[in-house]
Hints:
Elements: E1 2-4, H1 8-16, H2 20-27, H3 31-37, E2 51-53, H4 59-62, H5 70-75, E3 88-93, H6 101-118, E4 123-126, E5 139-141, E6 148-151, H7 152-162, E7 167-174, E8 177-179, E9 189-192, E10 197-201, H8 242-259, H9 278-283, H10 290-300, H11 304-315, H12 345-358
Parallel strand pairs: 3-4, 3-7, 6-8, 7-10
Antiparallel strand pairs: 1-2, 5-6, 9-10
Amino acid sequence: xxxxxxxEHTLKTALISxxxxxxxxxEKLDAGEKRLMDEAFRPDSDLFGPITLHSQSxxxxxxxxxxxxxxxxxxxxxxxxxxxxxxxxxxxxIGLLGNTRSISEEYVKWLKxxxxxxxxxxxxxxxxxxxxxxxxxSFRINDNTQNLQIHAGQILKFLKKKKPEDAFCVVGITMIDxxxxxxxxxxxxxxxxxxxxxxxxxARYGSDFYSSxxxxxxxxLQKKSSSDYSVFDNYYVPxxxxxxxxxSCKTLTHEIGHIFGLRHCQWLACLMQGSNHLEEADxxxxxxxxxxxxxxxxxxxxxxxxxxKALVRWVGAESIDTPTVTPEHSRADPLSLxxxxxxxxxxxxxxxxxxxxxxx
Length: 360
């Protein structure tokens, strides 16, 4: 295990900059916001800590990248910024996210609400869900895991064509595994920053995906023609759990962060850290470090207190046990499904600490 620890001076410069205009901008933050942001370079901070590497296969070790400080982010001439005309994040569901239609609809609403709180001040809208056949994308069975996969790049082209006029970005979400090209095994997601579109799969976040009894395996693809999508009529969808929801929220906000121009974080433990595998993704925090938080705040324009309060409201006052729903349920069955937030408990406590610093 290895710790990536930067000096107080390095973190302070990455957050505030040496550019007089950006320093002045920082000084105009209210006292509470500066107090929270300054936690970035406090060595004894219990809110923001250094990055911990657990293996040689972790992202930073295997994908060397130049770090992006606030000044570099702010000065990037190519990054996309929301405007009054393009102020909406659109979410496009492809296929069902739950094993009944009502569960799928609830799941998308939970993700919408989470995005509205995370990107506080922007509007999040849902596009009408579409089946895989509507995208006309290629698909296959993975040779290693024997699960269905759909072509990520072709879905991006579909999303670009559907992008509404007021869209800052359009993100597709699915419970079907993705592949970017024939030579690749899989990809969690893919985005085009230029076009403001992305597609992300939560298929591998189910608790049983890597188990020997995974029910989504198919031995052979019986395809009558290139336009025959009947194999998706009853494709396997994992059971909705609190951990699945937490992982979905992480992935969705991380990838939309990239569309805003945030690169992988290499300063502190942060949602924007890269991840090579599920274990590393699980070790990432659910929220942003102060350096990445300042980047997002400068792009969107929220007050930190309002954003954190919105996130606490999304979690709700209590955790609720999730009722078990089996694949045998009809996909049209109406079912009341409380939001499963047990896995968010520690994170809610962390936000409460952040709010205490802001309101001190």
